[in-house]
Design goal:
single chain, alpha+beta, Kinesin, 3 domains, 3-stranded antiparallel β-sheet, 16 strands, disordered N terminus, disordered C terminus, binds adenosine-5'-triphosphate
């Protein structure tokens, strides 16, 4: 391990000293910014004037020097016949006079990359400069070239374990495929559940960056060069080694420098194609995208916006720099790093709280010259083209389609910030938003892929996911390297990283190449043929021509008319083809349409032609709509003739910038004056209603509890009443027996045992009558007593309507019933009722008798 790495490892975990990118280890080292470069130093050195890297400028101005690159044989003569070097346009190197617009100026003056003629910035196997010794293993690139990158449909997920001096909490198996990693049982939360086995494509250890690059990114870089979109991103907690893996240091260059090296090595190994390379470098911090290649002032005043939807997401305004050599890429990266440092007060904190994205747009086409495919009337490439949004574009040419792909290399913010900082800082909230959204997006995609569902994927919830939408949605090769710190203290963060990695593994990909066909050349060829056919037709029809000018036999006439019919038919057929060959997008996968100009079949069946016609009509309709909307857009543009002087244009831009500023002030004023007070009112109202709601809820709960108690009590009362009725029945039987016995015995004086009622059949009859009435009342109104009561417990009608047991009889207190009974010799055995006294101190006589008689000997 290098000294620098060792010292970096020794630093406290929360701080992440970032390294400068080390693309050119030897000759460019003095031009590299030292780590300690202060913003002011950078500010003085960042007056970059040309859109191309310094090396590209040297090349384009044709000054012979150490970095001068000889032109390719295919472009040895420019179209106007001059020598290649002198024909190359100079890049607009100095600021235009009179430019005052502070907001828009950078995108139209010396910063305007789009004014470069892409034809002049092409690199091919001859013009690419020596690729140096870092990862310049061309044989390995050759090996990669033999692979088929389009077939992979899974995300490549790898784990990198940072070296540590502390004992590791993880058990790693790298000898079998897939590689596995699991927590050592002694560190598991509970001994009952064994630690989970995580499986990945690669698990890498150690400080060597080359094996990491080879395992994780090289195939993706080659795929990008081959026309597929590719994304490599590093995910993990702070200080786990994301930046070390992506950027590396002088001793161990990371994925970005190695990828760039391979890009040029690939070009060197591909003589059949020529390339246009554009790179951009941006940072997502607090959910705002900052263009790291634009001057800091304009990147702050004009954050990058994401426009478009679905696969057609565009970042604007985003500076893209054309690069033609490794040194150029190095320069661009350094400038980006410099701007990033300038923007931050605490570099380490800022870098671990923001996502950085390095993008390389790769356009390529087959090399022309000697191919024989190019029609003589092929379109010539103009020296300058009107500026195109996002930089210069390579044009299809002479039947050669252009392949476009994007390689994105992303260093994400520390993943643990997403949770630990969420309550503390705004930054934490934003990291939270983007990393958690990334997780949600990935799991939804994985779920959709696994279950064949098409659930909504919340790409729009964060800038990061929105920007990555075209790639994450499937049309890209993705490689994710998750870095973990193996220490015991970092087990929760490492586990969460491994779970994220496992989720992402399930996402299904369907990456496809994108090609644009040279429509002009195709049209030209068809037009030429149509012209020739028409000429032949006209000759045949001319009055003095070979057909009409002499007498023909019937047979000859027939042949001639057939030939003319065929000519007409071919003309018609070609006219239709011209309509449908505007663009051929391989993504549509429509086999019925020609995939390239060379595959066009002129002898298509009528059915195929009909299909072509239908498709062409649809295309025409779409284009008509597009024309209308473009016309509308044009109408709303400020009036300025194309040849207006620069000062006029600048004036207009200045006015627009002022209007924008004014509108911003108005918006801010609205926010300050109205936004805040309105929010406060809303919060108050919400609070008040929340309290009311809470009180209502409490009241309702109380009422429900009361109702429950009521129901229970009612039930209890009912059960008691039934029991009481049973006891009354028993007592009635007893009284009846008692009456019967009284009939045959001596006439007893009024006493407790001889109340006025017990005449033959009297008590029994009265009791029976009352029982009957009560039962019928109960049947008719089972809840009636409850309705009359105030309390759920007391039964009013029961209280007012006394039972036989409760009725007070006016009898002498001094009568000794036991003596009377003994005298009569009656052996009484009343049933044990267990009846509780109805009222204390005023027991009914019958009850008293019963309680007394219970003790009587039978
Ligand atoms: N595999 C490794 N070998 C040697 N040193 C490493 C390795 N991984 C990380 N380091 C060292 O650990 C420290 C932290 O690494 P790095 O800055 O790459 O972490 P990070 O994940 O990018 O953190 P942040 O989220 O803050 O950006 C650095 O000093 C780096 O050099």
């Amino acid at each position: 391990m290098s000294t620098s790495s060792t010292s970096k490892l020794a630093r406290p975990v929360p701080f992440t000293p970032k390294r400068t990118h080390s693309l050119i280890p030897d000759d460019a080292s003095d031009s590299r910014l030292p780590r300690s470069t202060t913003p002011s130093l950078l500010a003085s050195s960042k007056k970059y004037k040309a859109p191309l890297s310094s090396e590209s400028r040297t090349r384009l101005t044709s000054k012979p020097g150490p970095l001068f690159v000889p032109p390719t044989p295919s472009r040895s003569k420019s179209r106007d016949g001059s020598t290649p070097g002198s024909a190359r346009p100079k890049t607009p190197a100095s600021p235009r006079k009179g430019t005052e617009s502070p907001l828009l100026m950078p995108h139209v003056s010396e910063m305007d990359v789009s004014r470069i003629d892409p034809e002049e910035a092409l690199v091919d196997f001859e013009t690419v400069t020596e690729v140096g010794d870092v990862s310049a293993d061309l044989d390995e690139v050759d090996a990669m070239l033999r692979e088929d990158y389009g077939k992979e449909d899974k995300v490549l997920v790898s784990i990198r374990i940072r070296p540590s001096e502390n004992p590791s909490a993880w058990d790693v198996t790298t000898s079998t495929q897939p590689r596995t990693i699991k927590l050592l049982p002694q560190h598991a939360k509970s001994a009952a559940t064994p630690p989970q086995d995580f499986r990945f494509d690669e698990i890498l250890t150690g400080s060597e960056n080359k094996p990491v690059y080879t395992a994780v990114a090289r195939s993706h870089v080659c795929a990008a060069m081959d026309g597929y979109n590719a994304v490599v991103f590093a995910y993990g907690q702070t200080a786990s080694g994301k930046t070390f893996t992506l950027s590396g240091d002088d001793a161990q260059p990371g994925i970005i420098p190695r990828a760039m090296k391979d890009v040029f090595a690939y070009i060197k190994r591909t003589p059949a194609r020529e390339y246009l390379l554009r790179c951009s470098y941006l940072e997502i911090y607090n959910e705002a995208i900052h263009d790291l290649l634009a001057p800091p002032s304009s990147s702050v005043s004009q954050p990058v916006q994401i426009q478009g939807t679905g696969p057609n997401v565009v970042l604007t305004p985003l500076r893209e720099e054309v690069v033609t050599s490794l040194k150029g890429v190095h320069e661009v990266l350094q400038r980006g790093e410099g701007n990033r440092r300038t923007a931050s007060t605490d570099w380490n904190e800022r870098s671990s709280r923001s996502h950085s994205v390095f993008r390389l747009v790769i356009e390529s086409r087959e090399r022309g010259g000697g191919g024989g495919d190019e029609p003589p009337s092929g379109r010539t490439t103009p020296g300058f083209r009107p500026p195109t949004p996002g930089g210069p574009r390579l044009q299809a040419k002479g039947g050669r389609s252009v392949q476009t792909s994007v390689l994105s290399l992303i260093d994400l913010a520390g993943s643990e910030k997403a949770t630990s900082d969420k309550d503390r800082t705004r930054e934490g909230k934003y990291i939270n938003t983007s990393l958690l959204t990334l997780g949600t997006v990935i799991s939804t995609l994985a779920e959709n892929a696994a279950r064949g569902k098409s659930d909504h994927v919340p790409f729009r919830n964060s800038k990061l996911t929105r920007m990555l939408q075209p790639s994450l949605a499937g049309n890209a090769r993705i490689s994710v390297i998750c870095t973990i710190n193996p220490d015991v203290s970092a087990v929760p963060e490492s586990t969460s990283t491994l779970l994220f990695a496992q989720r992402i593994k399930k996402v299904q990909l369907h990456a496809q190449k994108k090609e644009v066909v040279d429509t002009d050349a195709l049209l030209e060829r068809y037009r030429k043929e149509i012209e020739e056919l028409r000429k032949r037709l006209a000759e045949k029809e001319a009055p003095d021509g070979p057909v009409k000018g002499r007498r023909l036999s019937a047979r000859e006439q027939l042949d001639e008319s057939l030939a003319m019919h065929n000519l007409n038919a071919r003309i018609k057929q070609l006219t239709k083809l011209i309509l449908t060959s505007q663009t051929v997008d391989e993504n549509k996968g429509d086999d019925s349409r020609p995939a390239s100009p060379t595959k066009v079949d002129f002898d298509m069946s009528p059915y195929q032609l009909q299909q072509e016609l239908l498709a062409a009509r649809r295309e025409l309709e779409t284009q008509a709509t597009q024309i209308l909307s473009l016309e509308a857009a044009l109408a709303t543009r400020p009036q300025l003739p194309p040849d207006a002087p620069d000062s006029e244009k600048d004036k207009l831009l200045h006015e627009q910038a002022r209007t924008i500023r004014e509108l911003e002030i108005v918006v801010k004023g609205y926010e300050d004056n109205l936004g805040e007070p309105l929010r406060a009112v809303r919060e108050d109202v919400e609070k008040e209603w929340a309290q009311k709601l809470e009180a209502e809820t409490r009241l309702r709960q109380e009422k429900e509890a009361w109702a429950d108690a009521l129901v229970k009590q009612l039930d209890k009362e009912r059960r008691m009443r039934i029991k009481l009725e049973e006891e009354r029945h028993a007592l009635a039987a007893f009284v009846k027996k008692f009456d019967q016995l009284g009939l045959g015995g001596p006439v007893m004086p009024p006493s407790k045992l001889n109340p006025p009622l017990p005449t033959p059949g009297g008590a029994a009859a009265v009791f029976a009558q009352r029982q009957k009435t009560k039962v019928s009342q109960l049947k008719e109104h089972p809840l009636a007593p409850l309705a009359e009561t105030e309390s759920p417990i007391r039964l009013a009608s029961e209280a007012s309507h006394k039972s036989l047991l409760e009725e007070e009889w006016d009898i002498g207190e001094d009568v000794d019933v036991s003596i009377e009974l003994e005298k009569s010799g009656v052996a009484m055995s009343p049933p044990k009722t267990g009846l509780a006294p109805a009222r204390k101190g005023s027991q009914s006589p019958t009850r008293e008798i019963l309680s007394e008689k219970e003790n009587l000997p039978v």
